[in-house]
Design a protein that fits this description.
Strand order of the largest sheet: 1-3-2
Shape: elongated
Largest sheet: 3 strands, antiparallel
Number of helices: 5
Strand content: 5-15%
Order of helices and strands: HEHEEHHH
Structural class: alpha+beta
Number of strands: 3
Length: 162
Amino acid sequence: MTTSIGNVASLAARAGGSVVRQVRSAIDPSAARPAGAGQPASGWLVVTVLREPSDVDTAQLPVPLAEFGDRIEVRVRPAAGGKGTELAARLRDRPSSGPAPSRLSGSDPQADLRSALRQAKQLIEVGEVLAVDPAPHGKRTATPGGALLEAWTRVAPKAGVR
């Protein structure tokens, strides 16, 4: 009997630790990364586009990137191994990563650029920005986990893979 209680307690402790790590990483994404694994010091965000470098014209950027105007620098170069083209962009005046509440509310210029870069990749490759149909929303009971999930879902299109 004591062994089963110990197993349950151990399982509960691991589950609690996992929840705390997930909440912490949602509030401050840098907390989920090892030291030095955050944004690159150069600030360049890069996507690989499955097109030849000559097909990607920096003078005629896709709309999501063109909307940034002179606030960004863009570079194009062949991807490693001849596997398309690297399209890179960075903010000219890089603000520091703001406080977690502002990032969760969606006011992070770096996240906006990351999202625009992914959309530009889709426009260059496919000709349109692909979107997932939103999940249907009905009446739900408010829970702390549900509120966290809703907040994360709101900013997910800007977050990308880290």
